[in-house]
């Protein structure tokens, strides 16, 4: 029917929480600390759409993301204006790649990354 959510484990919960809420502007639905797992679970939304579960665990193993490692390649966000989004993220301190044009759709996009080097794409709606 549709994708329900994406789960992300951050190496530093507070850093990841700040990134996804303050820099990307996702809204907190709920935040829970699970004592038995020594883990936070933060449910985040874009507008009214529940999209990301942000987790913390003690000492999670690193996951390679570059060069093109197996598994989830990147997370893509649809945005109204790619240029404005890129300018805003650069203003907030992110290192963003230059805007490119999708050779198949003709739409603009660019990449940046989260605090754990998860590639994030911002794609023209």
From TrEMBL:
Q: Which UniProt keywords apply?
A: Metal-binding
- The species is Chryseobacterium arachidis
Q: Which residues form a coiled coil?
A: none
Taxonomic superkingdom: Bacteria
Q: Give residue ranges for domain VOC.
A: 2-125
Q: Which GO terms describe its molecular function?
A: metal ion binding
Q: Which NCBIfam families match?
A: PRK11478.1
Pfam families to which the protein is assigned, alphabetical: Glyoxalase
Looking up InterPro entries in the UniProt record yields: Fosfomycin_Res_Enzymes (IPR051332), Glyas_Bleomycin-R_OHBP_Dase (IPR029068), Glyas_Fos-R_dOase_dom (IPR004360), VOC_core (IPR037523)
Q: What is this protein called?
A: Glyoxylase I family protein
């Amino acid at each position: 029917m549709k994708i329900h959510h994406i789960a992300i484990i951050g190496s530093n919960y507070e850093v990841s929480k700040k990134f996804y809420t303050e820099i990307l502007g996702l809204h907190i639905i709920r935040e829970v600390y699970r004592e038995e797992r020594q883990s936070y679970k933060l449910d985040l939304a874009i507008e009214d759409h529940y999209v990301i579960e942000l987790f913390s665990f003690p000492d999670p193993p690193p996951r390679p993301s570059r060069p093109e490692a197996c598994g989830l390649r990147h997370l893509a966000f649809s945005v109204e204006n790619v240029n404005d989004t890129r300018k805003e993220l650069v203003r907030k301190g992110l290192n963003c790649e230059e805007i490119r044009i999708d050779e198949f759709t003709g739409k603009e996009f660019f990449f940046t990354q989260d605090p754990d080097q998860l590639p994030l794409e911002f794609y023209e709606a």
